[in-house]
Amino acid sequence: MHLLVTSIGFGIVQAAILSIAAIGFSLQFGMTNVLNLAYGSFMTVGAFTALLTTEQGLSIWVGVVIGSIAVGLLSLLVGRVVIRRFASRGARLFEMAIVSVAIGLIIDYIMAAITRSEIFQFVFPLGGNHDVVGMIFTSTQLYIVATALATVAVLEVILHRTKLGIGIRASAANGQLARASGIPTERVVRLTWFVSGMLCGLGGALLSVSYLSVSFVTGTNFLPYILAAVVVAGIGAIGYAALASLVLALVIQIAGSFGAGSFNVAIAVGVLLLMLLVRPRGFFGELWEKSEAMG
Amino acid sequence: MNFYLSLTAVYFVVYAMGALALNLQFGLGGIVNFGFIIFESAGAYAAALTSVGSSATGVAQSETYFWGTSLPFPLPLIVAVLVGGLLAAVIGPATMRKMRRDYQAAAMLAIAIIANQLVGNTSSFLNGGNGIANIPAPLRSVFGSSVAAYDWAYVAWSFLLGGGVFLLCRWISISPFGRAVRLLRDDEEAAASLGINAWSVRMRLFVVGGMIAGLTGGLLVEFIGAWSPSAWNYQETFVLLQAVILGGVGSEYGAVFGALIVGVILLQLPSFLPAIGYPGLIDSLQWILIGVVYLAVLWFLPQGTFRERASLRLGGRAPPEKVGPLGQESIRITGPSGATTNEGPAQ
User: Fold this and answer.
1) How far is CA B65 from the centre of its chain?
2) pLDDT: which is higher, A135 or B11
């Protein structure tokens, strides 16, 4: 029983990180139609930026913010320079996925070359322990969960309550119509690259804060869970991506607490394969499309 | 030196066969398999387990794996082929569904990364991250003490198998079955109207690809004598895919040419160069190079070196411009002019 409660607690922290990363991925993919397989590498950049910041003697949370902004800028740069150029040459979804893999390989192995493929430890005070209905969280873990909740809330408000959000959703649903209606789709796409990159960097930095370590494969090894959450939710469905992340992370942690140590990764494969067989458009995909169609 | 040369030759055959199999699945069938390497790996582990002996009494007593036996020469390779095909038959149905192909690509990539982590973290299954070593070389005793003769005999054997796979792929490609596959890729509705069963055709193609992948794994592992998760990282699939794209999607000669350029010149030749920096730096630089070459190929040579024979394509002409290997979906980059703006209908 105690083990179960502990794993639920850890699952909630994992879910918080996963949902931030998955929302960013979903937003980016829904808006740009680019399957960005370099997303995990971008996360690692955020993690290393946070590490470098703390090594300058700054607080870890300053590091997380700087890591997030750095990846936002990197994402904007890659999106507007590399992706845009290839797209204007007529590259399609598949070619673009390959372009993103190439970018991911380049980023990953530049980091590997610089860090000599070593694992770096984070050293900072974790804060005291807090008991939340039987689950023990460190202050750091509570901050991570709070960050995720705030991110989801802010994005939901922006997407559904502001003009900007309407612009984003309209551009994602039908770009030409949105442009004809006077929405500056170009600016919206630029903003999407930046914001999704920020979420990506935030997720990566928080991931390494949670693991207390980072290496050049940290983000890429996390990518499958993001893909699983996004595929389960249906690509572009941002609110559902957070929900799917929660469910996936809890299932993985709870199953892991019963099975062998690495049993949990098999669960993620199983969930993915099952999803593809049963609901290839994502578990919430049809529901989400319906609600979007109704406005 | 002699060993490195023969190793390079064996690697060339392995990469060429892998590229041929991937070309079969992707170039002919349009099936996006970003997890190709796990089928090769399944074959490698299968061949390893069926030749290394049981973990309690076998060659490598310090290694733990769930099962092991010692079969005579061609059997481990046959088992490797069967296991590769079996795994493809199991995973295939999940990738055959009608769905956006990018979902498919994402799922296969996720499966490849996760499978690698799973095997690497489970020490009792396939000896975890250390993998299986001391895999006996088949028919080693026949050649007595001559190491070089054995190595080159193995190279010859590899080329024999590689030639067989090439002829098989070529034959599939120009056979009525191959034409059905191409039609399915280029115009699914036309194929359906001719009574072609898409599921069955794609499944058969996927399983044949999985069997060839299993063969490459078995062939490689029996020569190098060891197999571990670091040998089948997800990015190995993209090496093969790069060979296919560089060579020219849909062309068997292209796949072999691409394997020569990418597998041998980019990945194997650097091991002959004098070491620079710290150990491992060259590995990292190689992967950066692979990434850069990808961008360069897609930028300068998006059609590849060898074009698929026009007569083999739909109705003897190029497929409609709008249809890429992934169908109708396209990238939204949103510029002011309509020319650079494509809308994906699958939303």
Assistant:
1) 25
2) B11
Q: Of A60-69, B85-94, B121-130, B284-293, which range is least confident? A: B121-130
Number of H helices, E strands in chain B: 12, 0
ipTM of the prediction: 0.86
Kindly identify which residue of chain B lies nearest to residue A281, measuring between CA atoms: B99
CA distance A194 to B185: 36
Q: CATH class for domain B2-340? A: mainly alpha
d(CA A168, CA A187): 10
How high is the pLDDT of residue A101? Answer: 92
Q: How far is B141 from chain A (nearest CA, A)?
A: 40
Pairs of CB atoms within 8 A across A/B: 199
For domain A2-293, which architecture applies? Orthogonal Bundle (1.10)
Q: Are B291 and A102 within 8 A, CB to CB?
A: yes
* pTM across the whole model: 0.85
Q: Where are the domains of chain B?
A: 2-340
- DSSP per-residue string spanning A60-122: HHHHHHHHHHHHHHHHHHIIIIIIHHHHHTT--HHHHHHHHHHHHHHHHHHHHHHHTT--EE-
Nearest residue, CB atoms, A96 vs list B106, B331, B334: B331
Q: Which residues pair with A121 in a beta bridge?
A: A213
Note whether B221 and B47 are within 8 A (CB): yes
User: Residue B282: what are its φ and ψ, rounded to 5°?
Assistant: -60, -40
Burial class (CB in 10 A: 0-12, 13-18, 19+), A235: buried
Domain boundaries, chain A: 2-293
Gap between the Cα atoms of B221 and B205, Å rounded: 24
Question: How do A120-121 and A213-214 pair as beta strands?
Answer: antiparallel
